[in-house]
Amino acid sequence: MRAIPHFIEAKPFNDGARKGQVFNPNTGAVQAEVAFSTAKTVDAAVQAAAKAFPGWAATNPQRRARVMFAFKALVEKHMDEIAHLLSSEHGKVIADAKGDIQRGLEVIEFACGVPHALKGEYTEGAGPGIDVYSMRQPLGVVAGITPFNFPAMIPMWMFGVAIACGNTFVLKPSEKDPSVPVRLAELMMEAGAPAGVLNVVHGDKEAVDAILAHPEIKAVSFVGSSDIANYIYQVGAANGKRVQAMGGAKNHGVVLPDADLDQVVKDLVGAAYGSAGERCMALPVVVPVGKKTADDLRARLLPEIEKLKVGISTDPDAQYGPVVSAAHKAKVEGYIGLGKEEGAELVRDGRGFKLQGYEDGYFIGPSLFDNVKTNMRTYQEEIFGPVLQIVRAESFEEALALPSQHQYGNGVAIFTRNGRAAREFAQRVNVGMVGINVPIPVPVAYHTFGGWKRSAFGDTNQHGMEGVKFFTKVKTVTARWPEGDVGDQSFVIPTMR
Ligand code: NAD
User: Fold this and answer.
1) What is residue 497's predicted lDDT score, i.e. its pLDDT?
2) How far apart are CA 219 and CA 211, in angstroms?
3) Do 271 and 167 lie in a common domain?
4) Residue 83 located in a structural domain
5) Same structural domain for residues 169 and 268?
6) What atom in ligand 1 is closest to the CA of residue 449?
7) How would you classify the pairing of strands 285-288 and 11-13?
8) Full-model pTM
9) Probe residue for ligand 1, chosen from 42, 103, 107, 149 as the CB with the greatest number of ligand atoms within 8 Å
């Protein structure tokens, strides 16, 4: 059985303390055993990162950026290998696995420009002989805790920016698909990052709690489900750490009557069912405005959904593969059953889907609900599977209120030809990321990623300048180089007159 060790100080590390199993979602078979951390393992990683910090922080930003350039080239060189590894543990199809890696690399490209991002501010002559300047300095050892659904992109969101800024990093990836983060750490070393700059520890709550409790860790970046995000935020902050914690989502796509419905159907099918719906920026809820829009949309959607090809993740014709685990399959199918019990109309039922030759794989066929109501648990909660729910609205105002009042506020999309309506929607909707005729509005790397309400705890987004702010602290220097005598001693607070 393949063993997946931790990665500490540029070496595989296994203290044999605890372990977990890694499954192949296509077959349901155990394919590897992953080492699980105790507090001692986490401490070993933190010590390695702390040892590497002074040298790395003192390395000039251009040299740090060169490591990022080299890392990007190495990941591109190994793209096929990494995509296959990712797909074999996550279950997303190869093209989508490459997208996962590519979106992470875009943050690495941003990190290549870190010398520019770290330039401070300067005021010449703030007073007589006085200049004021500010600089951004790294925090020290920082940590990232990541979810299963983007095992390449989300670690790169975090360590890409943090390390370029001069921090050293301890990554605790999802225990469900832990191989790609280790591979990325190996490539960072090959790219020239000194040992200890990026360490990977695996595990579950025990590892996470050890990170939250470790006094040497200055900041924790988390992405995962909302209850855990809230826990990370509360405990991390109580322990004096800087914390950003991104949570779950329930993104709505509002369809106005003037939208190009053929395009909307194409966009929706990809955004709702791609990656088996396991994306925090998936569109699992569609809100057509007006009965005619809803009826037309449903009539056009259904044949497209019927045509979807579900297959193993290495099948080049498959549009999506299995979900990540047996437990997750049971959870999603449980929600489909609940939706029916709650009185929503189950137009297409994806439960019981079997792929010939892969009967033990975690496959779920595409499901569609219509006439979903806001008081239903299946509307209020995140399903995170290949399930699309139609919630009919009578008016623009009603459609705007739905995502605005939902507990989650990650992403939202509006489909329309009316620029004014789109503009008003974008301005008023109570959600962090908005797409206008864009179904998955994940911002480009030099902007920032982050939702509102229960989709994010803490006040700084991922990547872009928000990421740089999260992983640095500002120091402001006021310097006086007077000519001659500066006058008498003063007991009054200095002011600029
Ligand atoms: P998860 O919350 O189960 O796990 C995330 C991380 O937390 C993992 O590393 C896991 O090991 C750890 N963890 C799990 N249980 C824990 C516990 N009790 N205490 C401490 N740590 C624990 O999430 P997941 O299932 O891996 O990922 C899917 C979720 O992530 C979805 O809710 C999805 O919406 C969300 N997500 C959000 C974003 C975003 O940017 N907002 C992006 C991707 C995924």
Assistant:
1) 64
2) 10
3) no
4) yes
5) no
6) 40
7) unpaired
8) 0.97
9) 149
**The domain that contains 420 carries what CATH number?**
3.40.309.10
Task: Please give the Cα distance from 99 to 393 (Å, whole number).
Answer: 34
Q: Ligand 1: does its nearest atom lie under 6 Å from the Cβ of 151?
A: no
Together in a domain, 192 and 337: no
Residue 445 lies in a domain: no
Residue 121 sits in the same domain as residue 151:
yes
Question: Ligand 1: distance of its center to the CA of 212 in Å?
Answer: 15
Which of 106-140 are b and which e, b meaning 16 or more Cβ less than 10 Å from the residue's Cβ?
bbbebbbebeebbeeeeeeeeeeebeeeeebebbb
Expressed in angstroms and rounded, the spacing between residue 135 Cα and the centre of ligand 1 is: 34
Positive or negative CA dihedral for 303, 386, 149, 407?
A: positive
Q: Which atom of ligand 1 is nearest to the CA of 328?
A: 25
Which among 192, 187, 177 has a CA at the least distance from the CA of 79?
187
Residue among 271, 280, 324, 376 flagged as catalytic: 280
Indicate the residue type of 119.
Answer: K
Find residue 368's DSSP bridge partners: 348, 388
Please tell me the chain's helix, strand, coil percentages from 3-state DSSP, rounded to the nearest 5.
40, 25, 35
d(CA 69, CA 170): 21
Q: Are residues 350 and 238 in the same domain?
A: no
323 alpha carbon – ligand 1 mean position (Å): 15
Q: What is the mean pLDDT of each successive set of 10 residues along the chain, which is 497 residues long?
A: 96 91 98 97 98 98 98 98 98 98 98 96 94 97 98 98 98 98 98 98 98 98 98 98 98 98 97 97 98 98 97 97 98 98 98 95 98 98 98 98 98 98 98 97 96 96 97 97 76 75
Judge if 381 and 417 occupy the same domain: yes
269 shares its domain with 141: no
Q: What is the position in ligand 1's atom list of the atom closest to the CA of 145?
A: 9
The answer to whether 112 is a known catalytic residue is: no
